[in-house]
Design brief:
By secondary structure, the protein is mostly beta strands. The chain contains no helices and 55 strands. Strand 21 and strand 22 form a beta hairpin.
Length: about 525
């Protein structure tokens, strides 16, 4: 009984959670073939894959545990105790956090993927089921099936910052690529709600098939797909009009649904017929752009594609790495400008599809250049030819950029593996950008003492503040009044006490790139 399905970030593999057999099936996207299933699990209801496609996290709804597995080993490598009846599971864009809904405990577990431990347990509403992470990683969205609500969690504080009511036994939830909207399946109302993530309000309601379960958005956010468990269909929603443009018959009781990163294929887990349906957008190609150096894996869909003899980008032949009746995957050769891509079989040559070659961009600066080890803060990257940026790496940790313009990106910083500097690289359609960027992770500051604790209200005297992680100080205040300071070291600041309009005890506060620390009532004006 397949309940859930997940596609790897690179789009090469699909993972299916088989609740009845206690296994995870691994499907090859290129050949549509299934490898030996990973086992054993206990009634697996959800599966999440890290961005590097190396590690799987599986929610075992029959226990109070999440299992970890390595794809290459095809074996379970460990378990993590969470709440009762873990069901939905999702990994954040950095791959450093996994979020698990615990239906029986009315909680959300936050797992650190490096230490394989639970960092936090967050109370939500009744029977939390579906979970989705914002593309920035700054928020997590949880559907509460029996609470008829949606919880919004701030990932920096691991707290619920909003609860949206008025839903109807919501199960699946999907977020668009730009993070602006959520699509929530109301299983008891046969509708999908559209939620504005900024105002946190329902802006539209779309009628779909009976008992919508899973929902998934295409990578370009143009379509949302709803698996209608009670109708054995998938509804295709156009997000520009929020209307159903097509209804596709699939297997019995479809529940889980996922879209490949190139948006060309949709995988549907049919829990009632023990099958997976593959929906393909025919006569399409993705990606339609790539670097001038070549090397892009380009997927072309259509009909009568068996036995492809050649794929050409203009007049240049490309390497073919996979081929089925409705799909061929080829590697783009080096080139420039726009090339017409054609597919040739024994039956002839296809219509052309345009493929655009892009030069590499340049990323020349970022601000601010430092921040907390916990991450979740926003930075801005400046450069040129950045409009096609699709990934930012902090050393090896990925983050998804928000494109502001061709010269500017905004990025939510992922959590640090360790404090210190990391290299920041940007990937665009033209490949890795030129330029070397460095970002420094800093531990939160801590004040431990003052060299002098009293002085007149006229101020002007110099005191030393001692503590830890003070070298990135950006502001010092005493009694709420800004003070001049100089950085002596990571443990000492020299501060000129500002005049105060009042006497008595006063707070001393230091702000650094990693946050703020305060010693309450530690300095007394006389």
């Amino acid at each position: 009984m397949p309940l859930a399905v997940e596609v790897s970030v690179h789009g090469a593999h699909v993972y299916v959670a088989n609740s009845g057999s206690g296994t995870i099936s691994v499907l090859d996207v290129g050949t549509q073939a299934s490898t030996t299933a990973i086992a054993p699990f206990t009634t697996p209801s959800g599966v999440a894959v890290t961005p590097d496609n190396a590690r799987l996290f599986v929610a075992n709804s029959g226990t109070r545990a999440v299992s970890t597995a390595l794809r290459d080993i095809l074996d379970v490598t460990g378990t993590i105790e969470v709440g009762d009846t873990p069901y939905g599971i999702a990994v954040d864009p950095s791959g450093l956090r996994v979020y698990v809904t615990n239906q029986g405990s009315n909680t959300l577990s936050v797992i650190d993927t490096l230490s394989i431990t639970v960092l936090a347990t967050i109370a939500v509403s009744e029977a939390p089921t579906g979970v989705a992470v914002a593309p920035t990683g700054l928020e997590v969205y949880v559907t509460n099936r029996d609470g008829n609500s949606l919880s919004v969690i701030n990932t920096a504080t691991n707290t619920v910052v909003a609860t949206l009511s008025g839903l109807f036994a919501p199960i699946g939830v999907a977020v668009t690529r730009d993070g602006s909207h959520l699509y929530v399946a109301n299983s008891s109302a046969n509708t999908v709600s559209v939620v504005d993530t900024t105002t946190r309000t329902v802006t539209d309601t779309i009628a779909v098939g009976a008992t919508p379960w899973g929902v998934a958005a295409s990578a370009d956010s143009r379509q949302v797909y709803a698996a209608n468990s009670g109708a054995d269909t998938v509804s295709v929603i156009d997000t520009t009009t929020n209307t159903v443009t097509d209804t596709i018959a699939v297997g019995t009781q479809p529940t889980g649904i996922a879209v490949t990163p190139n948006s060309l294929s949709v995988y549907v887990a049919n829990s009632g017929s023990d099958t997976v349906s593959v929906i393909q957008t025919l006569n399409a190609m993705a990606p339609a752009l790539g670097p001038q150096s070549g090397g892009s894996k380009v997927t072309i869909t259509g009909t009568n594609l068996s036995g492809v003899t050649s794929v050409r980008f203009g007049s240049v032949s490309a390497s073919i790495i996979a081929n089925t009746a409705n799909q061929v995957i080829a590697v783009s050769p080096p080139g420039s400008g726009v090339a017409a891509v054609t597919v040739t079989t024994v039956g002839g040559t296809s219509n052309p599809k345009p493929f655009s070659y892009y030069p590499s961009g340049n990323a020349h600066s970022l601000t601010p250049g430092a921040g907390p080890t916990l991450g979740r803060n926003l930075i801005t990257i400046h450069g040129s030819q950045l409009a096609t940026a699709n990934r930012v790496l902090f050393d090896a940790v990925p983050a998804l950029p928000l494109i502001v313009s061709d010269q500017q990106l905004t990025v939510a910083v992922p959590p640090a593996i360790t404090p210190g500097p990391v290299q920041v690289t940007v990937t665009t359609a033209g490949g890795l950008t030129t330029g070397t960027l460095t970002y420094t992770y800093v531990d939160p500051p801590q004040l431990t003492g003052l060299s002098t604790t009293t002085g007149t209200s006229f101020g002007g005297n110099v005191i030393a503040l001692t503590g830890r992680n003070l070298a990135t100080a950006t502001a010092v205040t005493i009694n709420g009044i800004t003070a001049q300071y100089s950085i002596g070291s990571d443990t000492v600041l020299a501060v000129i006490v500002p005049p105060s309009p009042t006497t008595g005890p006063a707070d001393v506060t230091v702000t650094t790139a990693a946050g703020t620390t305060t010693l309450p009532d530690s300095y007394t004006y006389t």
